[in-house]
Design brief:
This protein is of the alpha/beta class and 266 residues long. The protein has helices spanning 24-35, 47-59, 74-86, 113-141, 162-183, 212-215, 221-233, 251-254; strands at residues 15-19, 39-44, 63-68, 92-97, 144-149, 188-195, 242-245. A 7-stranded parallel β-sheet has the order 3-2-1-4-5-6-7, sandwiched between helices. Strand 1, helix 1 (24-35) and strand 2 (39-44) form a beta-alpha-beta unit. Helix 3 (74-86) packs parallel to helix 4.
Length: 266
């Protein structure tokens, strides 16, 4: 199938770079930012999926370009950034880091060093690579919005997440704080976005995936995308350092609650 041809980029339109945009939260975020008037560079490893995202955005009247990247490789991130900025007529204003992974072997008795390295490299080190790449341009422009898509496990301990995922996502909170500490004076702001359970492919990598009736109550990627759109639209002087987003029926509370279900108290 021939790759879609993006429409002419609107002159001077702001740019957004969404890493991990081929599926799940990243895909929904790309669509939302395009609707908000951004020219969106969608990045991931699988070109055919990125082309699908571009096609969906352009069919809705938005502007997007596909840029393949391997976030675990510094040279690939640098090359992708050059392609992203070359594809924009206006400034790059938003970076969304949404690439993430986990492994099935989460108990210490099963976890291997290779598993741990894989998760940390994708969830933490890759964010650092992307942030270091965009920071010089953000500083020069005097503004930049960075959204780091983390997890409830990056905010509170979550047993099901396992050691590697928990460690990598918790570290993202500190990474965002250092950004706001050191780069806020240059107009750069960052948000540690911590969604609760979201129905995405990574949810199904759990040793025991949740039942369908539970997944129906969870957040979906569009819920998280709405939050990212709100963050990007805030006035330049406003910084949301951390945002925790959960389903109303939050299993993180329900499963550990000391209070019995209402029907049991009737």
């Amino acid at each position: 199938m021939t790759a879609p041809t993006p429409p002419a980029v609107p002159a001077g339109a702001p740019g957004a770079w969404v890493v991990g945009a081929s599926s799940g939260i990243g895909r929904a975020v790309a669509a939302r930012l395009a609707r908000d008037g951004y020219v969106v560079a969608v990045s991931g490893r699988r070109k055919e999926l990125l082309d699908e995202v571009v096609r969906e955005i352009t069919d809705q009247g938005g502007a997007a370009l596909a840029v393949t990247v391997d976030v675990t490789d510094a040279a690939s991130v640098t090359a992708a950034y050059a392609q992203v900025t070359a594809g924009f007529d206006g400034p790059l204003k938003v970076l969304v880091c949404s690439a993430g992974t986990n492994v099935r072997n989460r108990w210490w008795s099963d976890l291997t060093p290779a598993d741990f390295d894989q998760v940390v490299d994708t969830n933490l080190n890759a964010v650092t690579r992307c942030v270091l790449t965009v920071l010089p341009g953000f500083r020069q422009a005097g503004f930049g919005q960075i959204v780091v898509v983390s997890s409830w496990a990056g905010w509170q301990y979550m047993s099901a997440a396992g050691a590697a995922y928990s460690a990598s996502k918790t570290a993202l909170g500190a990474l965002v704080q250092t950004l706001n500490d050191q780069e806020g004076r240059s107009g750069v702001r960052a948000t540690h976005l911590c969604p609760g359970e979201v129905v995405t492919d990574i949810l199904r990598t759990r040793p025991v995936p949740p039942p369908e009736e539970e997944m129906a109550r969870m957040l979906d990627p569009d819920d998280v995308a709405e939050a990212v759109g709100w963050l990007a639209g805030l006035r330049a002087k406003v910084c949301v350092n951390e945002l925790v987003l959960t389903p109303v029926h939050n299993r993180m509370y329900v499963d550990t609650s000391a209070y019995p279900p209402r029907e049991a108290r009737a």
